[in-house]
Amino acid sequence: MEDELFDQIVSVFNQLVSWVAAGAMVFGGVVPYIPQYRDIRRTQNAEGFSTYVCLVLLVANILRILFRFGRYFETLLLWQSIIMIATMLIMLNLCTNVRMATELNTKRRSFIATDSKDEEVRIPKRLFLDFDWSYFWSWSHFVDYLQCVVAFTLVAAYITYLLLDSALFVETLGFLAVFAEAMLGTPQLYCNYQNKSTEGMSIKMVLMWTSGDTFKTGYFLLTQAPVQFWTCGLLQVIVDVAILFQVYYYSRYPQKPVSHTVSHTTSAKAL
């Protein structure tokens, strides 16, 4: 009787652990963006966050979903990709709205300074359908990003449909998905380098990146996963550490005058 009770307790505990692990697998990748999202909403300033991070994760997860048609992988990873795509679209929507509001406020101040009428304030529209590469991924409205994502998905899906019987193409597709995710931190690294500052970037987000990527890479090594998995994981850790070094360097040796915090006008968007 006691043995049966013990077995039931162990079974319930194992099931609980599996549920927690599944939840961590599906939603764990989203957690690092929560503090960044809250920081942008609170400050109404998206300058410190590179939207190319969203581009990298959108491409990586779209390719991973298409890869599943050629080589099956567990459903949890599929849901992970779907939720990550939704999260990146939410981040893009917020950053676009904040950036446009900032540009509009700047124009209004300049027009007021020159005694011009507020009705004359206009912001040049940058549209995806203009196909102007000088404004790629810097469009005026969220719908333009959505059009780009849909266009990329349709083209990639059509190519995958045509070449699905090719083992070389399927393996290449899987590698591109993993490699694109490995390049996740590089847009933020370059953004910090351009700004010569890490102001506006969530340190919590990068710390979560680093801890998650370190755990993932260690898991790949212990389970003897294919070489491209742990190689790309190791590359992610190196980029994360480089960003953390930027945080230390730019805080200790500022490259530009420290900007005074400007109070942003609260709006319905603010928490």
Automatic annotation (TrEMBL):
It is found in: Membrane. One of its GO terms (biological process) is retrograde transport, endosome to Golgi. Keywords: Membrane, Repeat, Transmembrane, Transmembrane helix. The chain crosses the membrane at residues 12-34, 46-67, 79-100, 142-161, 228-250. GO terms for cellular component: cytosol; endosome; membrane; trans-Golgi network. Pfam families: PQ-loop (PF04193). It is a multi-pass membrane protein. The keyword Ribosomal protein does not apply. This is Solute carrier family 66 member 2. It comes from Seriola lalandi dorsalis. The lineage of its organism: Eukaryota, Metazoa, Chordata, Craniata, Vertebrata.
